[in-house]
Design goal:
- An 8-stranded parallel sheet has the order 4-5-6-7-8-9-10-11. Strands 1-2-3 form a 3-stranded antiparallel sheet.
- The termini are far apart.
- By secondary structure, it is of the alpha/beta class.
- The protein has 2 domains: 132 residues, Enolase-like, N-terminal domain (Enolase-like, domain 1), CATH 3.30.390; 222 residues, Alpha-Beta Barrel (TIM Barrel).
- Helices cover 36% and strands 21% of the residues.
- It is built from 13 helices and 15 strands.
- It is globular and about 60 Å long.
- The structure holds magnesium ion (MG).
- The site of magnesium ion has 7 residues, from loops.
């Protein structure tokens, strides 16, 4: 048999019909507009709100909640994420949710791209499974909630005056993450440093366009007490990033260059670690796989997030006992979070100890 025909036929195993009898399943996928506390600027965009896709999966008296923040870089928006859910709705309604790994593999097989839509589905299923089993998701993954790392609080690109004000407002967070990658990098860092001596982490979001500029800026940042740099060069410039890494001391973390588990092996020589996000990986299961692969390759691990509500950020936080670094503040940047979930106390992520994600609606 031809290799291609053999693998195609092997992949087309039908999903079992649901074994559970009681409680007809239901799926709701709706777009929620999250209002930002501050206008948010990075090298990629500037905005006052974000639309994310919220999915709920109900069955047997339990409702699991999921969320995905569409990423423009991957040509996604909230509408296309919603359409992705519609594409697999009937399959999901007839599948057994306790076979969630098989179900999500089938979602990944049927839907091209649309990682935020997949993440919303994966998180809703995992929340449902945790509730059904009566355990928090960190327990499902065998993790200790005391091992959560400190999260950074992010300072978006702005004028020096507003940057100073945002830095003062972040007084309770022990580590800050500062967005750079534009012509204003030096004034931005100087504005932050004029207000605080805290450890800083910096994210260039692919903003520097050549390797010499990256080396120059990273060496300058090192003298400013910056701990590590995220994605200094465009994702495709892996060889150039390797060149930069051999000339600087500061650890370099891949973000835009690292979307899925299969990206990680080729990043090993160019980056010290990877920033995993549920919205770009397609959910908790793929994010867990990515973190384990990165660890197996001796790389540092980080969990990040997009601007999103406590649904998505809490899902990532349940995996955070696994990682070296966390940047899970997307819910802290919005003014109309529909749920309470993970909390932050002096930077430490505090996980709810209720089943599933442990979310409670904001009244
Ligand atoms: Mg980043």
């Amino acid at each position: 048999m031809h290799r291609r025909t053999f693998f195609q036929s092997a992949a087309a195993i039908p999903l079992a019909k649901s074994l559970g009898a009681a409680g007809a399943p239901g799926i709701e996928a709706r777009i929620v507009r999250l209002n930002l506390r501050h206008t948010w600027t990075t090298t990629m965009s500037s905005s006052e709100y974000r639309d994310t896709l919220h999915v709920s999966y109900s069955r047997d008296g339990f409702t699991g909640h999921g969320e995905g923040a569409p990423i423009v870089r991957y040509k996604e928006d909230a509408k296309s994420a919603q359409q992705a859910v519609e594409q697999v709705r009937s399959m999901l309604l007839s599948a057994d949710p306790m076979q969630f790994a098989k179900v999500m593999a089938e979602v990944f097989r049927r839907v091209n791209g649309e990682w935020a839509g997949k993440a919303a589905l994966d998180i809703a299923l995992m929340d449902w499974v945790g509730q059904r089993l009566g355990i928090p998701l960190y327990t499902y993954f065998g993790l200790d909630p005391k091992d959560t790392p400190l999260t950074t609080f992010s300072i978006g690109i702005d004028t020096p005056e507003i940057t100073k004000q945002k830095t003062r407002e972040a007084a309770e967070y022990p580590i800050l993450k500062v967005k750079v990658g534009l012509a204003t990098d030096e004034p931005t860092i100087e504005a932050v440093r004029s207000v605080t001596k805290k450890p800083l982490r910096v994210d260039a979001n692919e903003g520097w366009k050549n390797k010499e500029e990256a080396v120059r800026k990273i060496n300058w940042l090192e003298r400013q007490g910056v701990e590590f740099i995220e994605q200094p060069l465009p994702a495709a410039m892996i060889e150039e990033t390797r060149w930069v890494r051999s000339r600087v001391h500061m650890p370099i973390i891949a973000d835009e260059a690292c979307q899925h588990a299969s990206d990680i092996p080729k990043l090993r020589e160019a980056f010290d670690g990877v920033n995993v996000k549920l919205d770009k990986s397609g959910g908790m299961l793929e994010a867990y796989r990515m973190l384990q692969i990165a660890k197996a390759l001796g790389m540092k691990t980080m969990l990040g997030c997009m601007i999103s509500s406590s649904v998505s950020v809490t899902a990532a936080a349940h995996l955070s006992p696994l990682v070296d670094f966390a940047d899970l503040d997307g819910n802290l940047l919005i003014a109309n979070d529909p749920f309470h979930g993970v909390r932050v106390e002096k930077g430490k992520l505090i996980l709810p100890n209720r089943p599933g994600l442990g979310l409670t609606p904001v009244k």
